[in-house]
Amino acid sequence: MAQLLTEVEIQEQAKLLFGWTVENSKLEITRTFQDFIQAIEFVNKLVEPAESAAHHPDIEISYNKVKIILTTHDAGGLTQTDFDVAYAISRIN
Fold it and tell me: Is this structure's pTM higher than 0.85?
């Protein structure tokens, strides 16, 4: 099982992620697009980094908004894998 990060480690890494917040042991970001089609195109781009890491985000879609939530469910909180996937997602346009 993945190792949970300490609160200090979480805060240090969160500082490096623009637009992401840490709430209730989860990393979250909401991206807003011009329309539904662009939102879905963005979601489709999440497949490769999620599959490569074998770590899949929770995704909520509401028209042109996409909310991404990362946590390691089986570890019960945030692990390095959550931040690695968040960094990869942050590079997607």
Answer: yes
Strands (E) located in the chain:
21-23, 26-32, 58-62, 65-70
Rounded-to-integer distance, Cα 23 and Cα 34, Å: 27
Count of structural domains within the chain: 1
CA–CA distance, 28 with 4 (Å, rounded to integer): 17
What integer pLDDT is reported at residue 76 of this predicted model? 94
Task: Determine phi and psi for 55, rounding to 5 degrees.
Answer: -145, 115
- Alpha-carbon gap, residue 38 to 34, rounded angstroms: 7
| Average pLDDT of the segment spanning 75-93 | 96
What is the domain-level CATH number for residue 50? 3.30.1360.20
Q: How far is Cα 1 from Cα 47, in angstroms, rounded to an integer?
A: 23
